[in-house]
Structure formats: structure tokens, C-alpha cells
Specification:
Strand content: 5-15%
Number of strands: 5
Structural class: mainly alpha
Largest sheet: 3 strands, antiparallel
Number of helices: 8
Order of helices and strands: HHHHHHHHEEEEE
Helix content: 55-70%
Radius of gyration: 25 Å
Distance between the termini: 66 Å
Strand order of the largest sheet: 1-2-5
């Protein structure tokens, strides 16, 4: 095992010396497939992965490096780097944009609304969530000529926060419409 690590790391270094970064990265990846605890291969692959703009792989490698690093100061620095990378990955993933595109295609899409609620609640972006839900309620109500909007009793209660920090209580459970993938949102009723 140690001999394999040594040979792989030498081969990777030789590929780097010759300017073949792709070959070096492939060698280090192979080494990690055989031995996920090869810290030298992890550390050699990290800068190569950064150059290849493989953010998800880089995040995995940094987490592996963290798990194998015993020094407290190095662990602190790695956690900061992992948090930075996770933030970049979140920005690039554009989850909210993708879910909003779903709601453009199909207003009131239940799974998209649930996912948006989870994402925005985790970010404490309650005003944005309220804006999206109000917009969806209006679009769905308009699409269904208002026949179904507001007819459901308040079956669900959840709390949100506005910009001023006061609590609002929202009532009304979205009612599945049609095939069950869309919801009709009743008008917002809140109690301060």
C-alpha cells in the first residue's frame, strides 16, 4: 500500500514536471480510488482540480483533507476554505432561479414551492418568500378565475418574519389542483 502510494505520487509529480496536468490529475484520482486516505494525493490533486474548475470535486477533496488532517490550525483553515467553496457552489447552483423557472412554466407547482420555502427559510429570506407566495397566489387565482382561491379552511399554520422582526401567522394550506403537482394558494391572511 505504501509502495503504491509512493509510485503513484512520483508518477503524478513526473506528469506535472512534463506539463501534463490532466495526466497528473488522472493519476492522483486513480490513487484516491484505491486509497481514499492518501493525503499526499489529495493535496497534490487540489490545485489541479482548482485549475480545472471542478468545484464539487474540490469541495469533496477539501473535506477528505480535513478528515485526515490532525493539526488544529490547519483544520481551522480548511473549514474556512470549505465554507467558502460551499458558498461558491451554492451561488453557481442557482437553485432559486431554477425553481422560479418551474413556477413560470407551471404556477403553483407544489414541489417547487416546497423547495423554495425550505431554501428561503434557511436563509431567513422571509420577505422574499412572502413575495413569491403572493405572486404565485395571484397567478394561480387569475388562471383559475378565482373559483378555487380562498375556499380552503386554515388547515396549516406557519410563522414567518417580516423585515421589522414582527411575527406574522399565515394560514391556508395550498390545495392541489388538477394532477396534484400544482397548488392553488388562498389569499394570505395574517394576524400580527
Amino acid at each position: 500500500r505504501d509502495r503504491f502510494r509512493e509510485l503513484t505520487n512520483r508518477a503524478g509529480a513526473a506528469a506535472l514536471d512534463s506539463g501534463d496536468e490532466r495526466r497528473a490529475a488522472a493519476l492522483y484520482r486513480d490513487a484516491l480510488e484505491r486509497d481514499p486516505e492518501d493525503l499526499a494525493a489529495i493535496r497534490a490533486l487540489i490545485p489541479l482540480t482548482g485549475r480545472e474548475h471542478q468545484l464539487p470535486e474540490l469541495l469533496v477533496l477539501r473535506r477528505q483533507e480535513l478528515a485526515l488532517t490532525p493539526e488544529p490550525d490547519a483544520r481551522l483553515a480548511l473549514r474556512v476554505e470549505i465554507a467558502r467553496l460551499a458558498g461558491l457552489l451554492e451561488e453557481r447552483s442557482d437553485r432559486v432561479g431554477l425553481l422560479m423557472a418551474n413556477l413560470e412554466d407551471q404556477p403553483g407547482h407544489a414541489a417547487s414551492l416546497e423547495s423554495l420555502e425550505q431554501i428561503l427559510a434557511a436563509r431567513a429570506a422571509y420577505p422574499r418568500l412572502a413575495e413569491i407566495l403572493a405572486g404565485q397566489a395571484g397567478r394561480v387565482e387569475k388562471a383559475s378565475d378565482g373559483l378555487r382561491a380562498g375556499r380552503q379552511p386554515g388547515l396549516y399554520e406557519g410563522e414567518g418574519h417580516c423585515d421589522r422582526g414582527s411575527k406574522r401567522r399565515y394560514r391556508g394550506r395550498p390545495e392541489p389542483a388538477g394532477g396534484g403537482d400544482s397548488v392553488v394558494l388562498p389569499p394570505q391572511r395574517h394576524v400580527d
